[in-house]
């Protein structure tokens, strides 16, 4: 949130009024178009996994297993799964 990729341009009203209706619409919609393109690029980066690689998520993938820190009392594993144990896979995944 530190950097917002946006811009504001203060056009003189008389310059904007000199344009045709379609050109005015094009100027007004430029910001919406910019947001749509930016959203598509961010969506593609997130869905491709590129963001995780850029942020070093490969380190997380190299870690083996997940540590058990708590087991709910209502869970069927309560009393059977010791705290501090490591889960390496669930249902062969």
Explain this structure.
This protein has 93 residues and is mainly alpha-helical. Helices cover 47% and strands 4% of the residues. It has 4 helices and 2 strands. It has helices at 13-18, 21-48, 50-54, 58-62, and strands at residues 66-67, 86-87. A two-stranded antiparallel sheet has the order 1-2. The longest helix has 28 residues, at 21-48. The two termini are 35 Å apart. The model is unreliable at 58-62 (pLDDT under 50).
From the structure above, extract its key features.
93 residues; mainly alpha; two-stranded antiparallel ribbon; 47% helix; 4% strand
Task: Give the low-pLDDT segments.
Answer: 58-62
Per DSSP, the total helix count is: 4
- The tally of beta strands, per DSSP, is 2
Radius of gyration: 26 Å
Briefly note the structural class of the backbone.
mainly alpha
Largest sheet: 2 strands, antiparallel
Strand line-up across the major sheet: 1-2
What is the beta-strand fraction? under 5%
Average pLDDT figure: 78
Helix content: 40-55%
N-to-C series of helices and strands:
HHHHEE
Report the span from N to C terminus.
35 Å
Shape type: rod-shaped
Kindly summarize this structure in a few lines:
The chain has 93 residues and is mainly α.
Ordered list of secondary-structure elements with their pairings:
Blueprint: H1 13-18, H2 21-48, H3 50-54, H4 58-62, E1 66-67, E2 86-87
Antiparallel strand pairs: 1-2
């Amino acid at each position: 949130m530190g950097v917002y990729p946006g811009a504001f341009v203060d056009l003189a009203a008389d310059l904007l009024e000199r344009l045709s209706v379609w050109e005015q619409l094009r100027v007004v919609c430029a910001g919406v178009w910019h947001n749509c393109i930016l959203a598509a690029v961010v969506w593609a980066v997130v869905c491709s996994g590129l963001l995780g690689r850029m942020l070093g998520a490969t380190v997380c993938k190299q870690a083996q297993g997940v540590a058990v820190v708590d087991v709910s009392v209502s869970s069927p594993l309560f009393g059977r799964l010791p705290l501090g144990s490591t889960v390496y896979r669930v249902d062969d995944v």
